[in-house]
Design a protein that fits this description.
With about 100 residues, this protein is an all-alpha fold. The chain has one domain. Helices cover about 70% and strands about 0% of the residues.
Length: about 100
């Protein structure tokens, strides 16, 4: 397996682990994450007419590809892994506010 393919497989596994881990969180965290995901995916759909052509978008939202995706991930701050990191950070900040 070449390095690029291995990196892609690892990235897919990270996104899947995040998605699968949502259901194992407490209900408040789960609701927060799902609301954030809804906002973010709606934003991506609005800004990228071709968002259905991105492999990691399908992995994140749990949809099936109609055909193999032409693209792997969004550029820059729209990268799915960066989005996941921002959601995790937002959750931490939200929990701090709730605790105080």
């Amino acid at each position: 397996m070449d390095q690029e393919r291995e990196n892609r497989d690892q990235t897919i596994a990270q996104v899947e682990a995040f998605k699968n881990g949502i259901q194992h969180r407490n209900i408040e965290d789960m609701v927060f994450i799902m609301e954030e995901l809804k906002k973010i995916t709606d934003d991506l759909r609005a800004r990228y007419d071709d968002c259905e052509n991105y492999k990691l978008f399908h992995v994140l939202v749990g949809s099936s590809e109609k055909s193999p995706s032409e693209k792997f991930d969004f550029p820059g701050k729209d990268s799915i892994l960066e989005i996941i990191e921002r959601i995790e950070q937002a959750l931490k900040e939200h929990k701090k506010k709730v605790e105080n």
